[in-house]
Amino acid sequence: MALETSLEKPAPVRAIANAISGWIDRLGAVWVEGQVTQVSRRPGLATVFMTLRDSVADISVPVTCSRVMFDGLATPVTEGASVVIHARPSYYANRGTLSLQAREIRMVGLGELLARLEQRRQLLAAEGLFAAERKRRLPTVPQRIGLVTAANSAAERDVIENATRRWPAVAFEVVHAAMQGHRCASEVIEAVRRLDAHPEVDVIVIARGGGSVEDLLPFSDEGLIRVVAAARTPVVSAIGHEPDSPLLDLVADLRASTPTDAAKRVVPDMAQEASRVREARTRIRQAVSARLEREQHTLDAIRSRPVLAEPATVLDARHDELDDLRHRIRRSLETRLDRAADDIDHRRARVQALSPLATLQRGYAVLQDADGHVVTSVADVAAGAGLSVRVADGRVHVTATRTEPIEEHHG
């Protein structure tokens, strides 16, 4: 029922709010289709908050649902997903806001597809298939490139022409496969396995042009993702255009935005490489020249030193030192020899002074009897006895006629 109001009898805010709430309540539960733009899961709350946006008009409405229902969905709800919600409109009079209390959420169309892909991405990421440490480094100059693409496609021409233009010597091993449809995933898997087993293929490029999400769906196939992850040969993903992002981009060792970009990133530009070689050669030549110049300066400095400029000077100084040492040794030896000679003379003089012969030379004599015994007393000599007198230069044989003792006088 409409409220009866006038300038004289205005209705209070609470009356209008309650009336609006009553009118909205009479609407009952409705099915609403839209796109999820925001999802908020606040810690500790049993309610999940979302925003549902109209796919055509710039209109959105808040949505609430229980955390139990939200977590129990078979396909997780993500931002950007298109959904159909069975909800009851509710007007909060205290805040003057309108929201939908969701009782059931269903994914529809592209939104459901994207949600499934997101769920698959999360599961594969949890296994570590997208980890950076699993990425293999591409060869600097591949000799042979394995190419998986559709027959007679623009992607094939772009890759081959651009790669050959940049590096004419590169060779290709092309395996054609369906790039969309129900046979796409299985044929691409077989092609990757075949090229991975080829002993001369250095890198594998999977290329196709852009397309809708449905067209690119095979390149998010779980079987293909696992085959690429297990491949020994590095794999480059060149699927679609820059905004396209199938799961193959995440598991590949390198993601190229387009097939042309793949050709540029897989092989180097020969002209650029030749220019770099020339620059490197110039830098090396300059570095060697600078090193040689420094070493030459060092050699010149060493050669300018007196020891190398005039080596004879050092030898002459050593020669003078040797002469001086020789003279000193000679003088020392002569001094020691003179001292030894003097010592010998001294010792000889002392020995000669103590020699009995020297005593005899001073006039003394030694008297011996006939038996050769030295006579030291007159008592040992009888009158008429034959004696021998030892003098300095010989012996005198005498006969004792008489003996005469000498009395000692003691003072």
Automatic annotation (TrEMBL):
Offer one example of a GO biological process linked to this entry: DNA catabolic process
* Localization terms from the record: Cytoplasm
| GO CC annotations on file | cytoplasm; exodeoxyribonuclease VII complex
Q: What class of enzyme is it?
A: hydrolase
Instruction: Provide the OB-fold nucleic acid binding domain boundaries.
Output: 13-106
Q: Which GO terms describe its molecular function?
A: exodeoxyribonuclease VII activity; nucleic acid binding
InterPro entries per record: Exonuc_VII_L (IPR003753), Exonuc_VII_lsu_C (IPR020579), OB-fold_nuc-bd_dom (IPR025824)
Which reactions are catalysed by this chain? Answer: Exonucleolytic cleavage in either 5'- to 3'- or 3'- to 5'-direction to yield nucleoside 5'-phosphates
Predominant location: cytoplasm
Q: Does the keyword Cytoplasm apply?
A: yes
Catalytic activity, EC: 3.1.11.6
Query: Keywords, A to Z?
Result: Cytoplasm, Exonuclease, Hydrolase, Nuclease
Q: Note whether Transmembrane helix occurs among the keywords.
A: no
Record domain Exonuclease VII large subunit C-terminal: where: 129-351
Q: What does this protein do?
A: Bidirectionally degrades single-stranded DNA into large acid-insoluble oligonucleotides, which are then degraded further into small acid-soluble oligonucleotides.
**Which family does the record assign?**
Belongs to the XseA family.
What subunit structure does UniProt give? Heterooligomer composed of large and small subunits.
Q: PANTHER family of this UniProt entry? A: EXODEOXYRIBONUCLEASE 7 LARGE SUBUNIT (PTHR30008:SF0)
Q: What is this protein called?
A: Exodeoxyribonuclease 7 large subunit
Q: Which gene encodes it?
A: xseA
